[in-house]
Amino acid sequence: ALRLSYLRSGGHDPAVLDQLLHLQLEATVLEKGTAGLGRGRKMGTVAPQPAPEAPPAVPAEPPGTGTHGVDAALRTVELENRRLEDELLALKVRRERRADAGSRAAQRHTAELAQLQAEVGMLRCHTEQMRPWLHPPILPPPIAPPLLP
């Protein structure tokens, strides 16, 4: 849920995503490990739990012979699949945001263009109304003498 929230709010830092994936993996391991330990609790008290053992440096059985290797591989693939799904969701959200921003910019430009066209129309109307009130142009005096009748 934390990872999805981070991605939906626009987060895309690979270091943070890796850290969230690591935390998710740890939580999954803890949930699997403590599923059988819940029986020791009584009325809000917690029975003392043994310290978790560190995984052995060398597996007790060769990989592929037991179900632990397959389960771990399956969990790893599942977590990678979730990470990729989250990344895909983040890309979709970013694409939608860009498309929304582009359409908003286009709408803004269209509105500005319509406003400018309206202003030009009003100015034309105004000049046409003012034209009859303008004084006729004053012509310079004729160069030649007036003609006799």
UniProtKB/TrEMBL annotation:
Start and end residues of each stretch annotated as Disordered: 39-69
Ranges annotated as biased composition (Pro residues): 49-62
Signal peptide: none
Coiled-coil intervals, chain numbering: 74-119
Keywords carried by this UniProt record: Coiled coil
InterPro entries according to UniProt: CCDC17
Superkingdom, natural source: Eukaryota
Protein name as catalogued: CCD17 protein
Source organism of this protein record: Dicrurus megarhynchus
Gene: Ccdc17
